[in-house]
Amino acid sequence: MRLKSEIFAAALVRNAFARGDFAAIERKGAAEGGAVFVRQSFRDGTETLYAPAPQSFFDEDTTGKRLFELRLDRQPREAVSEALDREIRFDPDLWIVALEAEEIGSLVELQAAERDDPLFRR
């Protein structure tokens, strides 16, 4: 069983602050099961967008977990905003959590292909 989206988002913000990073809930969606997107901001003004991983990445051991996939990597803020606007038109119940952190691998679980890539350390 998965955590409610509102609990997951609140915990993500709290964990980011506990590490000394900044986080905020940019958009609240459906409390029970809204999709959660993570918007990571960098000091150089670029952003990375993580989206819920497709169900094909789940197996019996990962049901109940929230896995994320890289959707946009170090793009201008406007590109991430446009991608999120498209997602909101498709699913108005989604959540957006904004993080200002150089590395988020310990905050969210990434799909195996990204998590195991030694070059991927966002």
Topology:
Elements (H helix, E strand, L loop, with lengths): L4 H14 L3 E6 L8 E6 L4 E7 L14 E10 H14 L4 E6 L8 E2 L1 H4 L7
Explain what you see.
This protein has 122 residues and is of the alpha/beta class. Helix content is 26%, strand content 30%. The protein is built from three helices and six strands, in the order H-E-E-E-E-H-E-E-H. It has a six-stranded mixed sheet with strand order 1-5-2-3-4-6. A hairpin with a 4-residue loop joins strand 2 (36-41) and strand 3 (46-52). The longest helix is centred in the first third of the chain and has 14 residues, at 5-18. It is globular. Residues 118-122 have low confidence and may be disordered.
Radius of gyration computed on alpha carbons: 14 Å
**Terminal-residue CA separation:** 27 Å
Mean pLDDT: 88
Number of beta-strand segments? 6
Helical fraction: 25-40%
Order of helices and strands: HEEEEHEEH
Beta-strand content? 25-35%
Order of neighbouring strands in the sheet with most strands: 1-5-2-3-4-6
**Overall 3D form:** globular
Low-confidence stretches: 118-122
Figure out the total of helices: 3
Largest sheet descriptor: 6 strands, mixed
- Global structural class: alpha/beta
